Amino acid sequence: MSVHGTRAMYVRQKCRCEDCRAANAAYGRARYQGHAQLQRNLARTDDLEALEQSLQGRALHLQATGQDARLDEVQRLRGQIARIQQARQTATQVWPKGSVPHRLDEVEHLIRQRVDPAEAVRRLGWSSLDTAQKAAERYQRSELASTLQAAELREAA
Pick from 56, 91, 126: which residue ends a domain? Predict the structure, then answer.
């Protein structure tokens, strides 16, 4: 027997209570909007926040619509979210004392080699341009700090 507040109850049992109608509407929205958004975000795996939000939204949608047969997909998505969170934590780890100036030198070198500042910062383990900019300011690297600030403004625009 299907449970109220699920799409299965709406479709199979023809229930039109408010909860079942809401579940069916959520399914429709996710089908036409969420799936396309998920695919776009999966294609841009460098944008971890957007990917994480899409995966969480998809998992919530599957749970809300009561698609019990697709719980394995929810588990797979949760595994992907966990890997993303682990990658984010690794990227923001604390470095040994004295390694920050060396990393700033590496960022400057990559930028001189015409690597995009955001990519250079990401390659060396900073979580964002802002974090690298603050480190550059802390170590009196004003030229590098201004370059990173300009790149951050370009990204925001």
Answer: 91
Asked if residue 144 is part of any domain, the answer here is yes
pLDDT tens for the chain, residues 1 to 157: 678 888 888 888 898 988 888 888 888 777 766 556 655 554 454 555 666 667 677 777 777 777 765 667 766 776 777 776 666 555 545 567 678 888 899 999 999 999 999 888 888 877 788 888 888 998 899 999 999 999 988 887 7
Q: Show the 3-state SS of 84-119.
A: HHHHHHHHCCCCCCCHHHHHHHHHHHHHHCCCCHHH
Range of the domain at 118: 99-156
Asked if residue 1 belongs to a domain, the reply is no
Is 0.70 topped by the overall pTM? no
